[in-house]
Amino acid sequence: MQTVRGFIISLILVLSAGQGYAQPHSFTFTEYTVHNTELSHNTVTSLFMDSRGFLWVGTINGLNRFDGKHIKVYRHNSTDSTSLSNDFIHGISEDKEGFLWITTRDGGINRFDPVSETFVHFKYSETADNGIPNSPVYLSHTDQQNTFWVSFGRETLGILNKETGKFKKGEILNKKSGERLASPNAVTEFNNGGWLAVSFDGLYFLPDSTLQAFIKTPSREKLYARQLNHPAIQKSKNLVQIYTIKDKGSWIRGGGSPVVGISEEDYPDYLRDVADEGVYKNSAEDWFAQREQYLYTGAGEPGIAVINTETNKISYHKPVDETSEIGVNTLYEDKHGGLWGFSWGNGFARLKEQKLFRLINAMNYPQLPTEFMLAFEEEPGKGVWLGTAAGVGFWDISRNRLTNVNRYLPGEELTSVWSMDRDENGLWIVTLNRGLWYLPIVDGKPQFDNLQTFKPANSFVKSYNLHQVKRDSRGWLWVGYEGEGIQLIKDPDRLLNGNPVHAIEFNNPETSQHIKGNQIREIYEDKEGNIWLAMMQSGFNKITIGKNEIVEITNLSHNAGNTNSISFNDGRSIFQQNDSTYWFATYGGGINRWNKYTGKILQLDEKDGLANNSTYGILPDANPDYIWISTNNGLSRLNTRTLRFTNYTENDGLQNREFNTGAFYKMSDGKLIYGGIGGLNVVYTEKLEPSDTASPVYITQVNLFNEPLPSDTSHLFLDKLTLPYNKNFLSFEYVSLEYDNPSEVEYAYKMDQVDEAWVTAGNRTYAGYPGLEPGEYIFRVKSADGDGVWNEKASTIQVVITPPWWQTIWFRLTMGVLLVVSFASGIRYLSQRRLRKQIRQMEMENKLRNERERISRDLHDHVGAQLANIISGLSLADKYNQVEEKGKSSKLMNSLKSDAQVTIKQLRETIWALNQNKISLEGFIQHLKTYFGNQSTLHESLNINYELQADEDIELSATQALNIFRVIQEASQNTLKYADAENLKISLIKENGQLNVAIKDDGTFKEKNNQQNGGYGLGNMKKRAEELDGTLDIATGNGTKITLTIKV
Questions:
Q1: What is the dihedral of CA 917, 920, 925, 929, to 10 degrees?
Q2: Predicted TM-score (pTM) of this structure
């Protein structure tokens, strides 16, 4: 949505001697136009930041609310009386109640309620006598007494009553000539109540007495002013802005004309007396930004005006990159001190003030030998020595002057300077192909005539492949080579005095004390006085020193496959952060943290947020928890506690993305210097104050089914949502009001009752919750700034999803009562049913027991009697055989045989019934068929048919089955013996909870007594029906039909 322009506005001021580090005023742009935002029009007319931190942007086609990422547009709607009255915005302000006041060109004034997002109009009306002119609004100003002044057009200044909407008109007259003056475009209100005003008729003063008389006298319509005719404003009387500073004066901008200043000394006496009481308010104060003694303001075509309020000197500056379209014709300072710019037709821009970096390059210091930096060394109390690819330069900080030192050096032209080191008496310089130099310095003055050079031909120096030099805290001199290791001179003063010295070598692998590798990139002394060497191909060597003697030499280097080793062997620099922690920069492997007590190594590279894996110099921040790293892709600042990186590039004011080996230095005052291929940067780390909290985060929109939720209240002010169960697809949009680095803001959100922990969203400003179940929830969102500092005061909104009616509490209570009643009734019913069932079961068991007893008696009475009769008959037959009465014996034996067969049948039927707990009707019918099939007399004499009609499988108890069988047996025997029938039909039909057993024949009924068929007559059948709690009916007519009815 935003485009960061890769250029800087450099406002190079003439700094007087003694200003030292006072740096050029520089900014970077972030542009916002119709091409990368939802901005309603590219012609911006005004900017205003409200009390919550939202930026309001007025254009010629609507009002815009900007939050750093998104824009919401408000426009006039002819069908909505609460919409904006006119789209051409002139100005925006906010009152103490939080209402915004929007002045327009053709629609008067609007009061905007941010809660309801509605506008109330105060404008000209042909029907309403409100006194408001039909003219553009050029000024709205609330004075010390809370009087709301409004300037309409060129001719009317008056007071608007915010409650009634009535406007009291006034006209301004020149007190001296009586001529009418244009109404003010801007005013300075002094503490005594008087105004210094600018208008299309120039500059004039309205005394407090005149203003008070107009306020207190309803009939008063004239305000008398004293016009000021200062030479500085004679060329252009079309004045639009004024800014006054007590004891300094006023600066005035005309329409299209440069800014002019009027010193307080040039005020008329009456105005000087008023100004001495101080300034209450400048109505155009937001269009000016004060930084120490400098005052910035937009100045139209010339660009930004930079005003030195001490000298009243004004300079104008435009962007260096002329391809920029944005311009800064008008400057706006928000309530947090942030700067914005806009111009006609080119949108608006965020101006990020570059306080952190100062740039020194050939553009602002043409005396630089070259912009390619290689080494730095501080000259105490004076400045910095610059080692470059084209010799030595010196930046005199006290006078802000840069000198090319090469012209003072004797001999051939100096090329690259790899390293420099300042000792008590002078400066050591390592050159390319020129050997080792020493420049004596006396009382801060270089003694160029006494420059000493040490070469292979005249000294201990082994070759011209010198690369590093370091004089340590013991006074020892260390000299490092590119390919030939390192030398130690323990008494360099002897060398400087022209005496021979012994150079100790550490390059022989045959000795116990030797370094690993021979290409030195840095010589570093730690807090214990030990010497560290950054090696090009072998990591890092540590030379431990105790009591002025070398104790041991150890090495830290890369070990493939071992994460607890240096990440890469091309070492570039070392930095000791504290007693235990060291940091190592590598070229290709990022940086490494080593704990000397635990031996643990932590590797950090691009995947962890480092700007680039090719790193050069590590230096400390003013905050001891931070370090800086130069890379091939800008500078990185690391929070060593959180391991969070912040990266900087040219867009932040750096000389280039590419820095150089050896080109880094910490000044004695804590400022850092980093150099690269385009000059150097001074880093003011003390100006990076760690934030205590991130910017506030707001829930800007609630969506229902991905569409904005209809609401009479702005979503910004919603604290509770109540929605039905079928409207539960919600999403939330939120934003932190961070305008400098919105892409570095991180968010986390959480829905209570849904999310167990905070959901990390990164830079995403959207959270969705589809299908929320009925219940109560709280959505929370918080943000963290670029330093990882979280604003723990989360923005919240309560969400209530109501259940359907069948899930409501009252319904559940009702259903609960019904369930309890039903449950109790069910329990009672089941208990009674179980009781009845138990009673019936007991009755059935009792009947079964009685039946078994009866059957036992029958067996005893009938079967037993018959068996006794057979036994007696057999005895009698035996006697007949003894007396040879064979005829009688044969007849008796036949009779006994028949009795035995009947007995066996009765016994089988009884055993069948006793062996069955339950007998199905189908099983019963099958038994009947088997029985009648075995009765040859029956099945040969009668045609027997069976009928079974039942809607379910009915089961008979043993008692029921035996009694029914006996009835059918008795009935069929009667039919065979007495009815002369041919057909017999046996039916078992269930209906209405009863079983009807019918035996019907087609014979002639002959009533007999109850002793038919050996004692089994009709009386016995009725008795069996009674035992079954049933009935027995006999119907005669067309045959005989016996019906047994029992309950089942």
A1: -50
A2: 0.70
